[in-house]
Amino acid sequence: MQSTVDGFNYGLVTPLVAYLMACLGGALGLRCITRAMVVARSWRPGWLALGSAAIGSGIWTMHFIAMLGFTIEGTPIHYDRMMTFASLVVAIVMVGTGVFIVGYRGASGTALFTGGTVTGLGIASMHYLGMAGMSLDGRLEYNTVTVAASVAIAMVAASAALWAAGQMKGFLWSVGASLVMGLAVTGMHYTGMAALDVHVHGTADPVTGESAAALLGPMMVGPLALLVLVGIVVIFDPLIVMAGSTAPPVEHKPGIPAHSPVPRSRLRARGPVEHRSRTPQRR
């Protein structure tokens, strides 16, 4: 029989907290990506990896905070530990792939489209893999059109966020982008949940896995600790706020002068150079 699905068991508390976590992960991640654009090339992978981990952790934490308010009438919901952990890994790896594409190729054209698509698919994969990790006395069915809409929302949101990170226009610019990204990612989650229909079997067979309170609480410690660590790095980095107005450093190599060459226009302004002959003149 078809059961009633409730995604707001605690009212607006879980959606609001989930949205704030998505915004936090997005803000920290986008600042790290912006920072990667203005540092020496040798430091870029570290900043991009840190940004990828922040965004992936924020999205994963947002998803499972929202799932704490998700209930199905007639059956308890348990979660498989390995599938739940795999969804976190997928989020960080796929988001990282898109971030590295934009970080090295630029936030425009084909690179932005490719990076945004991969990142958006990573967000959607995390969501539906996490849903596949649910164990309950029933069968899950999805509306194909609504699922496609949720994936499209994720790809558009990811592309917009990566484009904003590549603009390097300062701290407030990234904050605005993170708010939009948080709204889009949360919207993607609840759009995907709206595509769900549950048919409960009505049997007495016990479900496998662990309850949300027993599994998700301890598992969130790691991603939350990572977000705190990234936040500390962002706060105490002296150039993170001014990254949008800082020019990329010039790498000095042996044999290359550190000063900029004199423009040809200045050489022309001095007039012709007089060539003196070394042959002594006769008196």
Automatic annotation (TrEMBL):
Lineage, opening ranks: Bacteria, Bacillati, Actinomycetota, Actinomycetes, Kitasatosporales
Region feature Disordered, mapped onto this chain: 250-283
Name of the protein this chain belongs to: NO-binding membrane sensor protein with MHYT domain
GO cellular component, one term: membrane
InterPro entries the UniProt entry points to: MHYT_dom
Domain MHYT, residue spans: 10-199
Transmembrane segments: 12-34, 46-70, 82-104, 111-130, 142-164, 171-192, 212-236
Keyword annotations: Membrane, Transmembrane, Transmembrane helix
